[in-house]
Design brief:
Blueprint (H helix, E strand, L loop, with lengths): L1 H5 L1 E4 L3 E6 L17 H8 L4 E2 L8 E7 L2 H12 L4 E9 L12 E4 L2 E3 L7 E3 L8 E10 L4 E8 L6 H8 L13 H4 L7 E9 L6 E5 L5
Parallel strand pairs: 4-11
Antiparallel strand pairs: 1-2, 2-4, 3-4, 5-10, 5-11, 6-9, 7-8, 9-10, 11-12
Length: about 220
């Protein structure tokens, strides 16, 4: 409980933002061993906390929650209408370099669907996948580890989208137990993916809200 309260990034009467650690579920999973999660811990401290969006268990960073059904509805609509800016930082295997945008941004535009033979994995699915778009730009290449630090901006919200799109580029995220090879997974003790930024219009005050979380790797 102390760790969760120390991870509080923003709090007012309408919403709260937590810095979720890697390895903690955002919402309960199936089975009694998967009930410990960010929303359950939050509700012990703020009983009115409600889920707005999710992060993968392996992903750390900013997790937004509403404090009333009306705020949950407004925030959910903002996510649905892509009015919430999300920025992630990841470390991927290999040398990844920008090629197109003068400002340093490139785009992955590949549809994603469930891999029904290997659930819960997702995969690029040109036949039946849902449209999925991710902006990315390389920040720095580290020759010693042959890895690249990248900034990611998902323009859609598919399950495992960033992990699948980086794998599709041939540069899986380091430490990824689902989409990286065993050798690339073993380079880090966790998935090196962090939700580092959120930008939105406050649903009650209508003032811009810009939130950041320091990258822990």
């Amino acid at each position: 409980m102390a760790a969760l309260s120390e991870g509080l990034v923003y709090l007012d009467e309408h919403l709260l933002v937590l810095d979720k650690p890697a390895g903690l579920l955002a919402v309960p999973g199936r089975g009694p061993d998967k009930q410990d999660c960010a929303i359950a811990r939050a509700q012990r401290l703020w009983p009115d906390a409600l889920v707005v969006h999710r992060l993968d268990m392996a992903t750390s960073g900013l997790l937004l929650m509403a404090r009333s059904a009306e705020m949950q509805r407004r925030l959910g609509l903002a996510f649905e209408q892509r009015q919430v800016g999300k920025r992630y930082v990841a470390v991927v295997a290999g040398a990844l370099r920008n090629t197109t945008d003068a400002a340093g941004w490139d785009m992955v535009d590949l549809p994603i669907g469930a891999d029904w033979l290997a659930r819960p994995l997702q995969r690029v699915d040109h036949a039946g996948g849902r449209p999925s778009r991710t902006r990315w730009r390389a920040l720095a290449y580290d020759a010693a580890s042959d890895s690249t630090r990248v900034e990611l901006e998902p323009l859609t919200g598919r399950s495992h989208q960033l992990r699948v799109h980086m794998q599709a580029l041939g540069h899986p995220i380091v430490g990824d137990p689902l989409y990286a090879s065993p050798a690339i997974e073993a380079r880090a003790p966790r998935l090196l993916l962090h939700a580092a930024g959120l930008q939105l219009m406050h649903p009650a005050t209508r003032q811009p809200l810009v939130l950041q979380s320091a990258v822990p790797f």
